[in-house]
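Study this protein:
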Amino acid sequence: MQTPYYLIDKANLRDNMEKIARLRALSGARCLLALKCFATWSVFDFMSEYMDGSTSSSLYEVRLGAEKFPGETHAYSVAYAEHEIDEVLGHADKIIFNSIGQLDKFDTQSSGHIRGLRANPGVSTSEFDLADPARPFSRLGEHDPAAIDAVADRITGLMFHNNCENDSFERFDEMLTLIEDRFGAVLHKMDWISLGGGIHFTGADYPLDDLALRLKSFAEAFGVQVYLEPGEAAITGAATLEVTVLDTMHNGKNLAIVDSSIEAHMLDLLIYREPAKIAPDTGDHEWMICGKSCLAGDIFGEFRFDAPLKAGDRISFQDAAGYTMVKKNWFNGVKMPGIAVRELDGTTRMVRDFDYDDFAAALS
């Protein structure tokens, strides 16, 4: 198959899915795929065998979840527009408002639907201010427990999303305790609570049993159904970006130019100033892997190889699913990667390719 393309490996994906299924069984929590992280719907039927549905951040995501991911469909948005609210409600099993102002604005239209509100506990595990929902002056959710309690009769659930790439159960437990202490009075009035995503419970050596017990005790203490919204946890390690070396140069360092672009195809890494990953990253020959766009800083990173790179060599960038495929773009008109799936029997098929017509259709 012609590179570049994203390659989803169902065997690796299944490893994550089985951990999700185990957590569901042990804790009673329900798990919804966060489409903001991963929305490649060609594997949704497979994932839905292990998960309870999907959750969204926009009209188009909630529609995709309703149409492509069997199970529950939760709708959330930082703000809904008047012209889209009816369509959102038409696709959603639950709608979660970001503010009391939005709850008020759409009170009549959403009457009769299962409604929730986002609450912001004021703490998070994000290491990046850009992604920190608890940053100063945050617009993400209501902060005042008393204000939330005042509208408790109009909602049946709350969503907390303050874990970000959190691989520490102890830190999760600490923040959940804070939520219990600060919002306990209103939690008792709810039927369901979403604790969002960002919990790296599918990672190696994560104490899954401890997490399950904590979630179960939380649910029993407040009489609620707990939801989790795994994104990265669902697809970590499940996909690669396959690229080919087009040219090599030397300018103080060995440079290899590939048929891809970090700005166009792995944008999240560029935003957070992080290098891509390859495995193994060993050997005596160090090379800087460069994208083919005209952006001077279009650099995937510096890696080690067993032999010097040459035109035609293939490279696989790891973890190319979460916040990667959803952010791909047409910068410089660089060909957008196709999407391939490696089935459980080892066969690989291309499920989507992109061409000039797709590029032209993106603008007018």
Q: What stands out?
A: The two ends are 30 Å apart (CA to CA). The chain has 13 helices and 16 strands. The longest strand covers residues 239-250. Residues 169-187 form the longest helix (19 residues).
